[in-house]
Design goal:
alpha+beta; 2 domains; four-stranded mixed sheet; 3 helices; 4 strands; Lipoprotein
Length: 187
């Protein structure tokens, strides 16, 4: 009989610890664990679709969905300037370089995050490539090993992606503005 009570008490204790664990995991969860998880849709009717290639180097762990969230609204800025239908292909790469220099009392840590975006617009007659990049350098100093480590957080990653995408879109605007001006000068 005593074994039955021990078994029942053990199950109650196990269930209580599981519930407590679930509740506490919400309290200590990383509030910036994920960038927005909304889906982006391409609105430009002059594009035959878009493909975002999986990067070979993705040290910042940025997903293709996050690239699309930043890119697709910006593509609409050049959509009206496209004279023909194009297919859009996107490549991206993210890198994180870390460096530390130490002396007897201090340590300086530097992290450099880089995001590169390459946009390709192609149709049977023409092919365009536009590149954009953004870089962020963060550094911190510890004295006698006291101080916080340097972090590149999700807000920083989002900002880098947006800046790299905007740089590529700005390059595209220059080219398609010239094409429109050339067409007008022929008339």
């Amino acid at each position: 009989m005593r074994f039955g009570y021990v078994m029942k008490d053990s199950l109650v204790a196990l269930a209580a610890s599981c519930v407590l664990g679930v509740l506490l995991s919400g309290c200590f969860a990383d509030k910036e664990a994920s960038i927005e998880s909304a889906k982006a849709t391409l609105q430009c009717d002059r594009l035959n679709g878009a493909t975002i290639e999986k990067p070979e180097v993705n040290e910042l762990n940025i997903s293709a969905d996050h690239i699309a969230l930043a890119l697709f609204p910006k593509v609409d800025e050049i959509c009206s300037k496209l004279d023909k239908r194009y297919a859009l292909s996107v490549q991206y790469e993210t890198k994180l370089d870390e460096a530390t220099s130490t002396t007897k009392l201090t340590a300086k840590e530097t992290k450099t995050a880089i995001v590169r975006v390459i946009l390709g617009l192609t149709n049977p007659e023409q092919e365009y490539t536009f590149k954009g990049a953004a870089q962020l350098e963060a550094s911190g100093k510890k004295v006698l090993d006291i101080g916080e480590s340097v972090q590149i957080d999700n807000k920083d990653k989002k900002m880098l992606v947006e800046q790299a995408v905007q740089a590529a879109i700005n390059e595209a605007k220059k080219v398609f503005k010239k094409d429109i001006e050339l067409e007008r000068s022929k008339d």
